[in-house]
């Protein structure tokens, strides 16, 4: 959950 | 990945390529703030720790490695390359890292989503990135002669986070409709810090004049 949306960005 | 995100990443990458090109081709880092470049090394090192923990995509991992590698390479040129380091504006690049790093770290300890090592460092990196350009902008204000490559480098670097703002709006409506205050507000502040610079950069470009920032 916490790794969606912004953690996969640079 | 949407077009805004890709455009943002490419703008970021292009800004770094441009800076490396300037340094390598002209053997000069005049007008570039070592303080800002060192802050970026700290930003990337604290944000990309998950490189060894979570795999997202080949694109994601490659870009992280490129950002880490190039930022360290730029700092090496400015500090250690025997020709380039002599062109560094040591006396004018006076901003203290400490005044940016410490408050950002304290803020990350206070305002974060989860109290874990990786999450705190990730949050810290977002706060620090939002203000990391300040030493560079201060240096540009003091410079009477800003070359085209330096001006365009800063412009692209600022544009990148602006494009991320559009990416977040797009993702909010197309993906999971979740509010992400920490990256959004940091990104908004980061882009707002460039507002003045954008204005003078675009004006000088339109009038075909040399870029100069008012002191």
TrEMBL record, chain B:
One of its GO terms (molecular function) is ER retention sequence binding. One of its GO terms (biological process) is protein retention in ER lumen. It holds the Pfam family ER_lumen_recept. Residues 1-25 form the signal peptide. It is found in: Endoplasmic reticulum membrane. It is a multi-pass membrane protein. GO terms for cellular component: endoplasmic reticulum membrane. InterPro entries: ER_ret_rcpt (IPR000133). Keywords: Endoplasmic reticulum, ER-Golgi transport, Membrane, Protein transport, Receptor, Signal, Transmembrane, Transmembrane helix, Transport. The keyword RNA-binding does not apply. The chain crosses the membrane at residues 55-77, 98-115, 121-140, 152-170, 182-202. PANTHER family: ER LUMEN PROTEIN RETAINING RECEPTOR. Belongs to the ERD2 family. This is ER lumen protein-retaining receptor. The lineage of its organism: Eukaryota, Viridiplantae, Streptophyta, Embryophyta, Tracheophyta.
């Amino acid at each position: 959950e916490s790794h969606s949306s912004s953690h996969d960005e640079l | 990945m949407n077009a805004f995100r890709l455009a943002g990443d490419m703008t970021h990458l292009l800004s770094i390529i441009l800076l490396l090109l300037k340094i390598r081709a002209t053997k000069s880092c005049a007008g570039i703030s070592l303080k800002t470049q060192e802050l970026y090394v700290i930003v990337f090192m604290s944000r990309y720790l998950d490189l060894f923990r979570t795999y997202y995509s080949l694109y994601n991992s490659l870009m992280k490695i490129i950002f880490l590698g190039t930022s360290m390479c730029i700092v090496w040129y400015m500090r250690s390359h025997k020709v380039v380091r002599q062109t560094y504006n040591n006396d004018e690049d006076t901003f203290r890292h400490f005044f940016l790093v410490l408050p950002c770290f304290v803020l990350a300890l206070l305002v974060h989503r989860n109290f874990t090592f990786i999450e705190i460092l990730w949050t810290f990196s977002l706060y620090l990135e939002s203000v990391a350009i300040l030493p560079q902008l201060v240096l540009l204000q003091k410079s009477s002669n800003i070359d085209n490559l330096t001006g365009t480098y800063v412009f692209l670097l600022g544009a990148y986070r602006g494009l991320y703002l559009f990416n977040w709006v797009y993702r909010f409506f197309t993906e999971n409709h979740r509010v992400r205050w920490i990256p959004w507000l940091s990104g908004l502040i980061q882009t707002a810090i460039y507002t003045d610079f954008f204005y003078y950069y675009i004006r000088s470009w339109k009038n075909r004049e040399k870029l100069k920032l008012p002191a």
